[in-house]
Specification:
This is D-threo-aldose 1-dehydrogenase. By secondary structure, the chain is of the alpha/beta class. It has helices at residues 31-43, 59-68, 115-129, 146-162, 177-185, 208-215, 248-263, 268-274, 292-302, 308-316; strands spanning 3-5, 11-13, 15-18, 48-50, 77-82, 84-88, 107-111, 134-140, 166-173, 190-194, 218-222, 240-241, 244-245, 282-288. The strands form four sheets. The protein has an eight-stranded parallel β-barrel, surrounded by five helices. Strands 1-2 form a two-stranded antiparallel ribbon. It has a two-stranded antiparallel sheet with strand order 6-7. The longest helix has 17 residues, at 146-162.
């Protein structure tokens, strides 16, 4: 599998393992199933793994760290996130997490973008992971905390990078405007952009991507299936888009793209994985993975041979914007 390098020197494989699902996103996943997914990814050549304290209230970090512990540490890149601390919870016995993860609510998330909070978050992630360092630390979804993110959180991450505690720093968000400001105003290395530069949506061409190219910042594209809308050869009538029912016009556009895919003997998910990697700023596409079978399917999609005429056809029909 090919890799692309950050200015920190970290080499990200063009497919990254998104570990939210092994944190029991939406439904339980067994330890053995989660371990098999990571092992299969490794065997397929994937060497970039992304997690967060938010994913399963620490379960994702613990499982991922355990699965990677016997692997040579210099042979993979690991990213996690900061901004939400996990603190003791006084919820009733048996209460479950209320933010999409099938885990007991023994702890709760608490926003803390202060310098001390960022440092504590990194320390606690290292403990859960059982690893000696974090290669990339992203500020996680600071949408409602812009002033503090600029004034405290991002500078705290840069300080940790300068101390050698983390290798590279940035932010992970579902919008492109605020990350573009981080790129313009701070010495960040990489942005994880979820859902805003995909086969279906290219709004990041208006702000984040030009800024990234200008400043030498790399982009990790996540949520490239747009909430599952592009994960099948044809979107279903009840498909989700941006975590809500897909509007009719969005469904129509996805079906129009699927028409072109079929004309070239391709599928929507193959094109969805390939599209972001065409932009010079994009270093990796991170796909959420739960099982060994999902890993194998993703690697097969990544390997699809997509001719330049296909992209030209989409552009001529006004279905994608040129980078």
């Amino acid at each position: 599998m090919l890799s692309r390098t950050l200015r920190s020197g970290a080499a990200l494989t063009e497919i990254g393992f998104g570990a939210a699902q092994i944190g029991n996103l939406y439904r339980p996943t067994g330890d053995d199933e989660a371990r098999a997914a990571v092992d299969t990814a490794w065997d397929a050549g994937i060497r970039y793994f992304d997690t967060a304290p938010h994913y399963g209230l620490g379960l994702s970090e613990r499982r991922l760290g355990a699965a990677l512990r016997t692997r040579p540490r210099d042979e993979y890149v690991l990213s996690t996130k900061v901004g939400r601390l996990l603190v003791p919870n006084d919820a009733p016995e048996g209460a479950m997490d209320d933010q999409g993860f099938a885990v007991p609510a023994t702890v709760r998330r608490e926003w803390d973008l202060s310098r001390d909070g960022i440092r504590r978050s990194v320390d606690e992630s290292l403990e859960r992971l059982g690893l000696d360092r974090i290669d990339i630390a992203y500020l996680h979804d600071p949408d409602e905390h812009g002033p503090q993110a600029h004034a405290e959180a991002i500078p705290a991450l840069i300080e940790l990078r300068e101390e050698g505690v983390v290798g590279a720093v940035g932010a992970g968000m579902n919008q492109s405007a605020m990350p573009a400001e981080f790129v313009r105003r701070h010495d960040v290395d990489v942005i994880m952009l979820a859902g805003r530069y995909t086969l279906l949506e290219q709004g990041a061409l208006d702000d984040l991507l030009p800024a990234a190219v200008e400043r030498g910042v790399r982009i990790v594209a996540a949520a490239v299936y747009n909430s599952g809308l592009l994960s099948k050869p044809r979107p279903t009538a009840d498909a989700q888009y941006d975590y809500a029912p897909a509007p009719a016009e969005v469904l129509a556009r996805a079906n129009a793209i699927a028409d072109v895919c079929e004309a070239f003997g391709l599928t929507l998910p193959e094109a969805a994985i390939a599209f972001p990697l065409r932009h010079p700023a994009v270093a990796s596409v991170v796909v959420g993975l739960r099982t060994a079978g999902q890993v194998e399917g993703t690697v097969e999609r990544y390997a699809a041979d997509i001719p330049e005429d296909f992209w030209r056809s989409l552009s001529e029909r006004g279905l994608v914007r040129d980078a």
